[in-house]
Amino acid sequence: MRSSAPEPAATIGDVAVRFGLPQHVLRHWESVGLLTPARDSSGHRRYGPAELARIAMILMGKEAGFGLGELQVLLSGPDPMRHADRLRRHVAVLDRRIAEATAAKELIEHALACPLPFAECPHAREQIDARIPAEPA
């Protein structure tokens, strides 16, 4: 029996172009269970508004640093916020990465401003020495 609802019309090619993604990425996301596009009578994938929103959420999650496995968990239910503990852990990881990137940026900016060669700059030397592990006891 045929549904009276219109079939989603966007093909995989249309969606790939629209999002700037290779088609194989969409197929991979489907193979790992992140996407479940409808199929038309010929078996071709068709993407409707719900699938387009899901692709946007996957891309947002990837931009936030989540892997596909994490996204599978976060997007497995109706509300990603029900995984607040996982999201909090990810915020802590992002905070650490931001601190590391900020320290690296400050070191590079200082090196650019220092008139001495890098290995002779007192600030750089301090950073270098801090990276040398102590001798084992």
From TrEMBL:
Annotated signal peptide: none
Record-annotated HTH merR-type domain positions? 11-77
Keyword tags: DNA-binding
Which Gene3D superfamilies would you find in this protein's record? 1.10.1660.10
Q: Does the keyword Membrane apply?
A: no
The record's section on Pfam families has:
MerR_1
Q: Which CDD domains match?
A: HTH_MerR-like
Please indicate if the UniProt record lists Disulfide bond as a keyword: no
Q: Cross-referenced PANTHER family, in alphabetical order?
A: MERR FAMILY REGULATORY PROTEIN, REDOX-CYCLING DRUG-SENSING TRANSCRIPTIONAL ACTIVATOR SOXR
Name under which the protein is recorded: MerR family transcriptional regulator
